[in-house]
C-alpha cells in the first residue's frame, strides 16, 4: 500500500507538472492582442505586379501577360499566395492603364484575352490567386460610354458628371467651382462637342463616372461579374474616396497648404470631392456582388482590397457597418507609408502600428502595405538599402495579410530619371524644374531579374523606362546565389510565417533600449521576438523583460536566431542571451525563445517517469 501511495503521488506530481508545462506561453496579460484566422486570404502574402515593368516576353521593351505567366514560379518560390495586377485593360495610356477605354478587354501591347485566360490557368495550377485592379471612378475619354455621353445619346446622357459652368459679367464661361484634379489644375474640362464641362478628378483624359446614375452602378457591377467569370479571385479597387462628389458642386475651402499654387490639389480641403458617405455604401454593394457570385458558383472567397489614403476613422468604415453589413476584406493600411520615414524612432513605429491595430474591427484581419507603384520605394524613402530588411521584418512579423510591391523583396531602389525620360503624366503636367516632386516613375522602372543587359527584363535595346544602374548586383539571380541577400531574408521570413504559423497567435509591440522596436509573437508554446535597431549606433536590449511586461507564466534567457538581416553579423541558429542582446546599427533579427524545446524536453522527462512507474 505504501508503494502504491508513493506511485500515486509521483503520477499526480507528473500530471501536475505536465499541466504546468502545457501552459507555458499560454497565459498572457491584457497588453497582448489576439488574432485567429481561417480564410485563405487572412494569412496570405500578396504581391503587386506592375505589368508594364515586370517581364517583357516579345522584345518590345514593355512587360506583358506572357512575361508574367513565365515568371509565376518565382512568386510561388518566394512563398506568395496571391498576386494583383495593375490595370491590363484596353487604354490609350494617358495614365498608363488607369484611363480605361474598355473595361472588358486587354490592352494589345500586354497581350490578348487568350493570354489572360492562359495566365489564369497557370496561376490555378500553381495554387496562386489572381487579383485584378478595378478602376471604377473614371474611364478614358475614348471609352464608348463617354463618346455617347458627349453626344447626348439616349441612355448615356448622365453617365458622367456634366455642368454648364458659370458665365461671368464679361460673358466668359468658367468652371462651376474651384475643384482641382489630383495631377494639378482645374478638375473641369470643356467639351466643345457637348458644350458643357465634364468632371475629371485625375487627368483630363479620365472623366469621372456618375455614380448617382443607377445605370452606371449596374454597368460597373457587370464589369466585376465579367472578370469573376474569367476566374479571377478578387479585385483591388482603385481611388475609392473619389467615387462621389457634392451634388451642389460647392466650392471647397482652402486647406492652408500650398498657398503659392492654387492649382495644386493640396491647396484645397477636399470635403466635397472625397470620402462622402455614399462611397462606403458602394464598396458594400461590390462586396455583395462577390459574395453572391461565390454563393452561386461556389469555390473559395473572392476578395476586395480597397485603396484609400484617408484618415483611419474613414478607412475603418470600409470593413463593416454597425448592422454587420460587410465591405472590403482589406482596406489598405498605408500607415507605414504615410506616417513613417527615415527619421522615425522606435516609439513612432509602435504608435503607428498600434493605432492601425486599434482601428481594425474585431474579427477582421489587419493588412500591411510597405509600397506600391505610386510611392517611392522602401529603401529609398526610408533612408537606404539597409531599411529594406528592417521594414520587411516589421511587416512580415505582424499578424494578418502582407502586400509586397514588386522588387521590394530585392531591396530595389528608386531610379532617378531625367526630364527627357519622364513618362508619368503627374510629372509631365509640370515642368523641368519641379517634375521630380510629382513623378512616380522612379518606382516603376523595370524589374531586375539578372545581371544581363537591361536586367533580363527585355531583349529590346531600350525598355519603356530606363533600368536602374544598380541592377548588376540587385537582381533575383545574384541574390538567390549570394550567401546573404535581401531576397533570402524575405524568403526566410515568409517561410517562418508559414511553417510556424504566425497567423493565429497572441502578439504585442514594445520599445526596448534606446532605439529598438520589438514585436512579440506567442503561439503553440513558441515565443518569437522581432528586434529592429532603427539607429546608426549599437543598442543593447533586455528582451527577457518582455516576458514580464506581457505577463507570461514562464521566461527564458536564451534564444536562437531564426532570421537575420543582411547587415547582421549573426547567423541562423546562433544562440543569444535575451537579457542582454547587443544590436549593431540597423541590425534586425527574429529570435525564437527556448520554450518549445524546453517544453518538449520536460515532457519527455514526464513520459520517462511514468514509464519507470509502470515498470515498478
UniProtKB/TrEMBL annotation:
InterPro entries in alphabetical order: GH, GH13_cat_dom, Glyco_hydro_b, O16G_dom_2
Family: Belongs to the glycosyl hydrolase 13 family.
Transmembrane segments: none
Pfam family, one: Alpha-amylase
Entry EC no(s): 3.2.1.20
Coiled-coil ranges (or none): none
Main enzyme class: hydrolase
MF-aspect GO terms: alpha-1,4-glucosidase activity
Annotated Glycosyl hydrolase family 13 catalytic domain residues: 48-444
The entry's keywords: Glycoprotein, Glycosidase, Hydrolase, Signal
Catalytic reactions of this protein: Hydrolysis of terminal, non-reducing (1->4)-linked alpha-D-glucose residues with release of alpha-D-glucose
Protein name listed in UniProt: alpha-glucosidase
Signal peptide range in chain numbering: 1-29
Domain of life: Eukaryota
